[in-house]
Amino acid sequence: MSDVYAMGGEVMFALAVAGFPREMAKTIISEVFRGGRDKVGEAGGVIAGGHTVVDAEPKYGLCVTGRVHPDRILHQGRSAAGRPRLPLQAARDRRDHDRGEEQRRQRGSARGRGGQHAAG
After folding, report:
1. Residue 7 sits in which domain range?
2. Which residues does residue 50 pair with via DSSP β-bridges, in sequence order?
3. Which helix (H) or strand (E) holds 99?
4. Residue 62: which of 113, 6, 116, 11 has the closest Cα?
5. pLDDT tens sequence across 25-75
């Protein structure tokens, strides 16, 4: 929903995409879906469907469709002349990459100071 909001748009509907372990309690799964429905509802949209799979690790996400004024549409990887570029997914990918690099540096630094680490 944040991408829709970033363009000053309004949420219309969302598809819920999820994976849960087979042994996960159904009450927990229900609460996850209820929370997603409530948040989309607060934004003025509805859950229009989705897809669920059995997976070893729980995961949940929303594919959101919104309405945005044509002058406010931001395209990933391109922008109008004279306007700043806002590559939403690219920025997130870079942030995640930088976090990983920082964690690797910290682990390497701890080893150099006699820090403990598991032998591989």
Report:
1. 1-73
2. 16
3. helix 88-112
4. 11
5. 999 999 999 999 999 999 999 999 999 999 999 999 999 999 998 888 876
